[in-house]
Design goal:
The structure holds two protein chains of two kinds.
Chain A lengths: L1 H26 L6 E5 L7 H5 L2 H11 L3 E4 L4 H9 L5 E4 L1 H11 L2 E6 L7 E6 L14 E4 L5 H13 L4 H4 L2 E4 L3 H10 L4 E5 H9 L8 E6 L7 E4 L5 H12 L7 H7 L4 E3 L6 H9 L4
Helix pairs in contact in A: 3-10, 4-5
Chain B lengths: L1 H8 L8 H6 L1 H30 L5 H8 L7 H12 L3 H25 L3 H9 L4 H12 L1 H21 L8 H10 L3 H27 L4 H15 L6 H11 L6 H36 L6 H16 L2 H12 L3 H26 L2 H9 L4 H35 L6 H11 L3 H27 L16 H4 L1
Helix pairs in contact in B: 3-4, 3-6, 3-9, 3-10, 3-12, 4-6, 5-6, 6-9, 7-8, 9-11, 10-11, 10-16, 14-15, 14-17, 14-19, 14-20, 15-17, 16-17, 17-19, 18-19, 19-20, 19-21, 20-21
The chains are: A alpha/beta, B mainly alpha.
């Protein structure tokens, strides 16, 4: 009997101690940060968040409040995070934006000028003998994330229109999860060819992360509307406006570190109407 | 294949720069916090449940049985569901692990408290004690050591699971590994794998210590609560969770998905079969070299270390690496299961050979038979029952893992689930979760029936269920 009492008492004591510690940890919190998320179009690791530190400090300077930068592990999670309120603002691709808008009423804010006329690039492993779309028959092919616009949706449409439906035309196809992964898979020969975001590809080649002699660009898609920054439905207009202004104010020559992270030169206001085509294609391909 | 080898070379050297190691501190803390937090919560929830069952409170048994449904959904599959409900990060991982281990631990606690010795309980009854009093002052102290020992044991499994929930977005070091591999950042991936191996080894030591001194679990409770506070869901959007949960029902598969289902199930079963059988053949060979009776000590030592290396790397980590190297599909999954199983089966087979009863072996050796003849006609046949039992346990476990490996691209039912979830086709995703649970239940049931028919020679006990298997069924 005594033993039990001792056991229960020590259990109780540990509970109280734990609760006290948790309370202490809680009261140390400061002003609520603005939670800004980005789809992991270029990978999702702690390190990739730290590489974006200049963007974070730029935003908190301009907004006059702390900004927390979050990169969920996949595109779906980013949309759900806007839906359940764990993100205030998120950077979406065209298709993920359409889903976030349709499901949770996400409000489009701003986008890069280049996003209004965006392109997918089809790349092939040097020496694979691929020079045009028709050569892809029977090869292995890499798409990016399954929810990516330039890495999956648009390439899939182009392939279908060229008489190469992914399900039957390839020896094998896969979703790599991100644009750099697609570039690396093609450069290493793990995939004969792949399709990806033009800005990511150019940056990887410029930085020497993908050897230019290992990959050839053999096809470019027609233009479509892609990435956009959007807010959750119930974020205050003041916060939305402040965030938009911060990105619209970016100047080449002055904010190069931030612009390089965002892979753009100039930001413009975004509208929901620009995404009608993306939505139509997604429905057609059973991705929506 | 030559490309894969070239790719393999890019894993070296691991990135050991101080900046990177420092940056990994956060994810490492998350992983530990997940395990400690989830286990503390699981114990807190399951102890009252267990006591309620022990006290024979009405409905308590039913509740525990209902909860146990969650045990047939592999922990990582639960994590996927929690990522949908709670959003990204450690909150989802913590919720998934807490749910899974509450279901598992509550069942065992309930079983333990129900099987307390009768006499002391009758004595308490005679004093007019209420059922709750009997449970608190009779059953609990009587079974205290068992509860603690089991706690230490469940804790070990949770630690391993916490390492990998990250692979589907549950937070911690798994996120880093999945992300680095996805970005083809292989030097950092090998840093992370090294870190994981060290972590698993350290945790094994800790778990062994806890098994010897289960009471040390108690001071960990406050730590666990703080961890649960920090790493738990930051905000639980109730209406969002309800809405999304509503989107999952009724589960439904489109006709073309339904037509594809047998193929998907076959891929998953194939993965488990190929991995288990391949590992069994290689493991049996290694077992001879690792046996105390059959091998010289230098060989035994070397082979045992090798086996340890293979089993320290979790299946899912092998899977992430192999999917990056040889591409998607069940072949990568089969290899992942095989490499890990080789490490564990090799060791278990060797122990089975060593545990074979001595007398029959001496009898054959006494006829002047060579040691090879003794091995073939006595040691191996005697150990066969134990070896087959281990093999079946491993197959049951590998089938579970095969459904999980699919989530990271190894094909089969898991991959279909992951893709449906990614595309927000939640009714389809939920249908795949149910198929997974059914597949796991059927396999466990068949495995149990087969195991019951295995004949054990006199003087040899049937091997116990391996560590984390026991939690699952």
């Amino acid at each position: 009997m005594f033993e039990t009492m001792k056991l229960l008492r020590s259990l109780g004591a540990t509970l109280i101690a734990g609760a006290a510690l948790s309370l202490a940890a809680c009261s140390a919190q400061e002003e609520e940060p603005l939670r800004v998320g980005m789809i992991p179009d270029a990978g999702a690791t702690q390190v990739s968040i730290e590489e974006k530190a200049p963007l974070q400090s730029y935003l908190s300077d301009k907004l006059g409040r702390p900004v927390e930068l979050i990169i969920p592990t996949n595109y779906n999670a980013t949309v759900e995070a806007i839906g359940n309120g764990s993100l205030d603002i998120a950077y979406f691709g065209g298709l993920t934006y359409v889903k976030a808008h349709e499901r949770y009423g996400a409000i489009p804010l701003v986008q890069r000028e280049i996003d209004r006329q965006f392109h997918s690039l089809f790349i092939a492993h040097a020496g694979s003998g691929i020079g045009k779309l028709a050569d892809l028959k029977g090869k292995t092919f890499c798409f990016g994330d399954i929810n990516s616009t330039s890495g999956h949706l648009m390439p899939r449409l182009i392939l279908k229109d060229a008489g190469l439906p992914a399900e039957t035309a390839f020896a094998e196809f896969r979703h790599t999860g991100s644009h750099p992964a697609t570039a690396q898979a093609v450069a290493s020969g793990a995939c004969d060819a792949g399709a990806l975001d033009e800005t990511v590809f150019r940056q990887l080649v410029e930085e020497g992360k993908v050897p230019a002699e290992k990959v050839t660009v053999f096809h470019t898609s027609p233009p479509f509307t892609d990435y956009v920054w959007a807010a959750r439905r119930d974020l205050s207009e003041k916060d939305r406006e402040a965030f938009s202004q911060a990105l619209l104010a970016l100047q080449p020559g002055q904010d190069d570190a931030v612009l390089e992270i965002l892979r753009g030169e100039k930001f413009v206001p975004a509208e929901n109407g620009s995404y009608a085509d993306v939505e139509k294609v997604a429905k057609e391909l059973d991705l929506l | 294949m030559p490309d894969s080898l070239a790719l393999l070379r890019t894993f070296f050297p691991p990135d050991l720069s101080p900046d990177y190691l420092l940056a990994l501190l956060g994810p490492l803390l998350e992983t530990l916090g997940l395990a400690f937090g989830a286990m503390t919560l699981a114990f807190l929830f399951s102890l009252p449940l267990g006591i309620a069952v022990g006290a024979r409170l009405r409905g308590a048994r039913l509740l525990v049985t209902a909860l146990s449904v969650f045990r047939s959904v592999p922990d990582l599959t639960l994590a996927i569901l929690c990522v949908i409900l709670f959003g990204i990060g450690t909150g989802a991982g913590l919720a998934a692990l807490t749910l899974y281990y509450t279901a598992a631990v509550a069942k065992v606690f309930a079983d333990l408290l129900e099987t307390a010795p009768e006499r002391p309980v009758e004595a308490l009854q005679a004093t007019g004690a209420s059922r709750l009093q009997i449970a608190l002052y009779g059953l609990l102290p009587l079974k205290r050591d068992d509860l603690m020992a089991y706690g230490a044991f469940a804790f070990e499994c949770a630690l391993r699971a916490s390492i990998i929930v990250g692979a589907v977005g549950g937070g911690g070091i798994g996120v880093e590994l999945a992300g680095s591999l996805a970005a083809y950042d292989f030097q950092r991936a090998s840093t992370l794998i090294l870190l994981l191996v060290l972590l698993v080894a350290a945790l094994d030591r800790l778990a062994a210590m806890l098994r010897r001194h289960p009471r040390w679990l108690l001071p960990m409770a406050p730590l666990g609560l703080v961890a649960a506070w920090f790493f738990g869901p930051q905000s639980f959007a109730f209406d969002h969770a309800i809405r999304v949960a509503g989107e999952m029902v009724p589960p439904e598969l489109a006709p073309d998905a339904l037509a594809r289902l047998p193929q998907l199930i076959w891929e998953t079963v194939w993965m488990a079969l190929a991995g288990t059988l391949g590992a069994a053949v290689a493991g049996l060979l290694a077992a001879f070299a690792a046996s105390r009776r059959l091998a010289p000590s230098w060989l035994r030592f070397a082979v045992r270390r090798l086996l340890e290396l293979f089993r320290t790397v979790p299946e899912l980590v092998w899977g992430l690496v192999l999917v990056a190297l040889v591409g998607l599909g069940p072949v990568a999954g089969g290899w992942a299961l095989g490499l890990h199983s080789f490490g564990s089966l090799g060791r278990l087979f060797a122990d089975s050979l060593d545990a074979a009863p001595e007398q029959p072996q001496h009898a054959i050796a006494g006829t002047g038979a060579s040691s090879i003849v003794v091995a073939c006609y006595a040691t191996v046949p005697l150990a066969m029952g134990a070896i087959l039992t281990h093999l079946l346990f491993r197959f049951e476990w590998n089938l579970r893992m095969a459904t999980v490996l699919g989530l990271i691209g190894a094909g089969g039912i898991g991959q279909a689930l992951y893709e449906a979830q990614q595309l927000f086709f939640y009714r389809e995703a939920f249908a795949y979760v149910l198929v997974t649970a059914a597949l796991v239940l059927v396999t466990d049931h068949l495995g149990a029936r087969l195991r019951a028919r295995i004949h054990m020679p006199r003087g040899m006990r049937s091997p116990p269920r391996p560590a984390c298997n026991a939690l699952a069924t």
